Amino acid sequence: MTQGQRFGTYLRQLRLVTGLTQESLAERTGISSKAISDLERNPARMPRLDTVNLLAAVLARKPEPHRQCTAAARPLPFVAQPPAQAADTPDWA
Question: Is a pLDDT exceeding 70 seen at residue 77?
C-alpha cells in the first residue's frame, strides 16, 4: 500500500465511522467535496499539512486518531540500517 493509498483509506474509514458523507465533511472543514473524494481514491494526491489538520480536527477528536491521521499523510522517512557485519570480520575493521 502506498503512502497516498494509506491516507486515502484512513480518511475514508474515519469519515464513515463518524457517519459523515463527503459533502457533510466538506461543509465542516471548508474543503471541497471533490478534494475529499480525490484524496480518498487517488493515491497520487498528497494532502497539504493544513488540509490534514482541518480533516483531523473534524474526524479525529481525540489526540491518538489525530496523530494517526497526520502520520498516514506524512509517515516518517525510511532510514536505512547499516549492513550487518560479517561474522568473520573483526570488530575493529
Answer: no
